Amino acid sequence: MRLALKDVVTLFDVSEETVLKWIKSRGLPSNRIRSNWAFDRMKVLEWATETRTRVSPAIVQTKSCYPESCPSLVDTLTHGGIHYGITGEDMRAVFASITRVLNLPNDAERELLQRVLNARKSLGFMGIGDGVVIPHPRSPIVSNSSQASVSLCFLEMPVEWKAADGKPVSTIFMAISPSIHVHLHLLSRLAYILNDAKLRVAINPKAKPKRILELVRKAESEINE
Predict the structure, then answer these.
(1) Which whole-number Å values give the CA distances from 178 to 19, 43, 62, 68, 148, in the listed order?
(2) pTM here?
(3) pLDDT tens, 11-23?
(4) How would you classify the pairing of strands 2-4 and 36-40?
């Protein structure tokens, strides 16, 4: 979804001058089309998440994911599951472990998914901070399943990932979706709720699945309100 300058002003509740300053001094992703500025909603949200810049919940509110209805994070996380003790001494090994535990259809090509995750040129990462990342492929991970899923994976040992805050990765959220629309919907909601430092700390390997789902449900309800 494309945003105009006035939309970004509203989302951050700042002046146009501040937004233009952020473009130059803080790297706010944007495109200049003649005399107008254009912004990609997902890139703006990623930037806000990585720079810890507060943004309005309006950025993740979606009326519909045509032709599918937008699933909730709680439902997709329940379906995808919360997995503890994911092994691996590096990211390639971690991805191999994750693809083995994902809740996918019986005919899903897990090896193909693993190759996609290992293809660094096609895979980016939304660095949430505090050891949390969301793999974010340029071509979203879309499965032949009609049901979207988000899997929360806690690593047995933190893995170095050259994160912006210098912390090794210990927690990975993996989204698998039936369409690009749903995929972007889930990623944007995940990034928004995880921008809350208290929530990031509360979602940890010591927390039981029921507690984690309660935290996500509460955070998501605040978006809807």
Answers:
(1) 35, 21, 17, 9, 6
(2) 0.79
(3) 898 999 999 999 9
(4) antiparallel
